[in-house]
Amino acid sequence: MLGLMQSQQLLISSLIEFAERHHGEAEIVSRRVEGDIHRYTYKEVAARARKVANALDQMELAFSDRVATLAWNGYRHLELYFGVSGTGRVLHTLNPRLHPDQIVWIANHAEDQVLCFDMTFLPIVKAVHGRCTTIKHFIALCDADKLPADTGIPGLRSYEEWIGSQPAEYAWPEFDENSASSMCYTSGTTGNPKAALYSHRSTMLHALAGALPDALSMSARDCVLPVVPMFHVNAWGLPYSAAMTGAKLVFPGPAMDGKSIFELIESEKVSFAAGVPTVWQMMLGHMQSTNLRFSTLKRTVIGGSACPPAMITAFNDLYGVEVLHAWGMTEMSPLGTVCTLKNKHLPMDSADKMKVRLKQGRGIFGVDMKIVDDEGKPLPWDGKAYGDLLVKGPWVIAEYFKGEGGSPLVDGWFPTGDVATIDADGYMQITDRSKDVIKSGGEWISSIDVENVAMAHPAVAMAACIGMKHPKWDERPIIAVVKKPGADVTREELIAFYEGKTAKWQIPDDVVFVDAIPLGGTGKMQKSKLREMLRDYQLPGV
User: Fold this and answer.
1) Can you give the pTM of this predicted structure?
2) What domains are defined for the chain?
3) Tens digit of pLDDT for each residue in 129-139?
4) DSSP string, 262-279
5) Which ranges in 11-68 belong to alpha helices (H)?
6) Which residues are known catalytic residues?
7) For the residues of 178-246, what is the DSSP string, one character each?
8) Which of 267, 411, 463, 474 is the most exposed place for a label (fewest CB within 10 A)?
9) Cis amide linkage into residue 334, ω under 30° from 0
């Protein structure tokens, strides 16, 4: 016997319809590429998203055709989020931080038909458009009068001219919720990237679970700043969860420096922000050097890579901001875990609470996890045993676009490539990427643990630990360090700093001072490039 309830497809278009009807007055504020601040409401987003839909229909694009974006976090990008997917086409967010050759490869592999781009990226588009063999339409996200006369890009149109003459009325089509809605290519360190292809159903369930109180806890009372880019796993689903809850949205545009982010948080009374550690590092540096304080920010979610304890302490103790450690992957849409406390943790002292907060957190509803040994046997959830982390759930991929690499699943579970522990309360902690674990004398050393000690030193701005070949111990850890401006620390001082904070055999053998640590398009440290930088390095005494 079936239930006697109404049946309705879970479609992204329903989000903007809901936001318009129930939260039409809520603001979307964007710092534009032009430098000024743009303000409007969900009601206007909805009207302009319908104009986008009409413009796409006029291009006679087929169902599931890919529409690419090369854009910052801003209001026009948001309109494309709803306008493209709502029509049954697929929004493909390209990462502008990639090498032009990679952008060309990805656009051709995705068979993009349209490219919408911010004017910041005009030089990239000029360089690649002739090699993007499937793109037939180029749209610059600007006013008609801001379009240069001679770009050399055939048929280039301004976004405002493209949608300007279109009617604001549009009946969103209904189709199977399992249809593709958007796609994002992984930032793989080796070989060509592979694409995760999200569905309307997976996106809607992810947005719903992400908004829950024990996840990101979003509501109509929030003012949300997604610093995490919209070109990286749909800004962790925040634009969708914001429309679902009616939260005010603030977009930083291209100004991602610490000073600009802080000023936007203060001027717009942001209560919740999301980003990767490197962004927050810059902002905290700015605040500490100028003795600033937050007036409205209450919580921040930090993901993309492990958050150093010193950063959590700074946010919590100095600025009264709750840090939500989170973990996920492109292949997971991306939310997997969020580190929110349970009732049993509330009476704990700050030191014990910190031990919990350092973990990546508990699986949110919809995500199941397990850790296994080298033979694939499940390991206990005791917080000590560590093994390969596997996940499954309704927004975890089953395979990559075009079947690249064959099925990634192992008995229905997706192998994350991370090594982790899970404790009795279900809190997961990443100990390393499987390829970054350092094996020394038969013992495993977590590069994250080594990095966290270095990051606690007041002179250290950024630190990355890698393993170097050793004739006796197989590998030994070294730490690459970027010093804070005007600060100084010697090799000997930093190694001495490790005393009493970790086991002797886990202390790095050497410190290498560098001007910068290579970062990927999503702000993560690229250890493969760091290893390449240090390919001629020799361990002391070897």
Assistant:
1) 0.85
2) 41-175 (3.40.50.980), 206-435 (3.40.50.12780), 436-533 (3.30.300.30)
3) 999 999 999 99
4) HHHHHHTT--EEEE-HHH
5) 13-23, 42-58
6) 186, 331, 439, 444
7) TSEEEEEE---SSSS--EEEEEHHHHHHHHHHHHSTTTT---TT-EEEE-S-TTTHHHHTHHHHHHHHT
8) 411
9) yes
